[in-house]
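Morning!

This is the sequence you dropped in the shared folder:
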Amino acid sequence: MIELAKDSGVWTVTINRPDKANALTEDMLRTLCEIMESADEARAVILTGRGKVFSAGADLDAARTGLAVSGLWERLSGAIARLPGLTIAALNGTLAGGATGMALACDIRIVVPDAKFFYPVMKLGYLPQPSDPARMTALIGPARTKLILMGGQKIRADEALAFGLVDRVVAPDTLMETAHSICADTIAAPIEIARGIKEMCG
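The structure's back. Tokens below.
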């Protein structure tokens, strides 16, 4: 249910469980962690999903048995954030709950027009994963972060772009083409230059 393709230095990681809105089980989450922890050699990593939803977060049955508060979410976002290559979240649809951390940890986020963003931790009675509020605040500021995390608001793709939560809104049929085009200069550059620029950007 997690697919990995490698091509010319680009690793494409795809969540493939569209019949369940790409909700993540513990095994899927562990697989994502292991892939990202082994991706130091990748010049770029593109993270995407199948179907009309990027990910609904934790699988409901798994959430009830503790996955919603598992340290695996933080392990995953930390592994993505530490990667030396360019990381792109190519969001093929709505992004919800704990899965938000994956996108926040990426360098760049592109999204289709019909996507929505929501993180209903207040409603569900959970704290967000530790790094998610800080990463979100760095992108959109504290008030808008509270609007999402405390106000429980669903943010449309156009609002997300205006906020700075995503970097570009693209048509669904050009999503992956756009992601690969963003990677092109990084892949073509000497590896020390690409990694040096990323380090300088912080």
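Headline: The first strand starts at residue 2 and ends at 7.

More detail when I'm at my desk.
O.
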